[in-house]
Structures are given as structure tokens and as C-alpha cells.
Amino acid sequence: MKLSKTSEYALRILIFMAKNPEELYTAKYLIEKLNVSDKYLRRLMTDLSKSGFIRSTQGRDGGYTFAKDIHDIFLYDIIDSVEGMEQLNDCVLGFNECSCSNPCAMHDDWIIIREKLNKVFNQTKLSDLEFDKILRY
User: Fold this and answer.
1) 72, 117, 136, 137: least surrounded by Cβ within 10 Å?
2) Are 58 and 46 in contact (CB under 8 A)?
């Protein structure tokens, strides 16, 4: 199981911004700090804006800032907004049909791990992260 690049970047962007949630971030600054391509970052920022997490300010002094309080943004909601959480609930071995009645070799173990992972994403807010310990974004 692995998050898609889209989810990874969306989480990285919002976690980076959440360190100083009142700041206005330019696309250029985010591109440099997070090493995300310009086109990819701008598309993600549009998606995150449409989802209500951030808002953009146009013009010379424009940029991105949070539209929603970081105490109200769960990691689950970020992932769900850019790719859908059902991706994380798929079979870990990639089978289209994997269920309790038609299990793959990893099914029983994956259910336990998947439930724990979903719990972490569902219960962790951006504000819960320990920003003083984060060294990479």
C-alpha cells in the first residue's frame, strides 16, 4: 500500500503550510521548498482550494493561505479530496475482487493494518502534528 503522488504532495503542501498557518505562501516559494513541479503544484492548489482547505489571493502580493482552521482539517479529508480514500481500502496485492469470501494471501493481515491506518488518518488533524520535530516536507 502506498499513497499516490497526488496524496503525498497534497499532504506535504498542507503540512508545510500548517507550520505557520497565518502566512501567505506564493506558488514559487512552495515549489522551491517542496520540490514539486510548477504545473503539479498549481493543479493541486486548485483542487485544495475547491475542497475548501485553502484560498488563493490573486495579484502581485497574492498567494495561498488556509481557508479552514487547521484544527478542523483531518489527514483523511485531505487524501479523500484529492484521490478518494477508497484507494487505500483496495486489495494490497492489487486484486480487483478481494473480500472475506474471496481473500488474497494478505487479506486478513491487511484488514487489520488498513483499519489502523484509516484510524490514524481519521483522527489526526493538521494541528496535531509536532512541527518542531518535522525536518522534511
Assistant:
1) 136
2) no
pLDDT digits (tens, 9 = 90+) for 55-81: 999 888 889 999 999 999 999 999 999
List the alpha helices (DSSP H) in 20-106: 27-34, 38-50, 75-82
Q: Which residue has the cell 507550520?
A: 19
Asked if 48 and 65 touch (Cβ cutoff 8 Å), the reply is no
Mean pLDDT, residues 28-34: 95
Enumerate the β-bridge partners of residue 25. 64
Phi-psi region of 101 (alpha: psi -120 to 50; beta: other; left: phi over 0): alpha
DSSP character for 58? -
Instruction: Please tell me the total number of residues recorded for the chain in this structure.
Output: 137
pTM, entire model = 0.86
Q: 92: which 3 cell numbers? A: 494490497
Alpha-carbon distance values, 49 to 4, 6, 14, 66, 81 (Å): 19, 15, 11, 9, 10
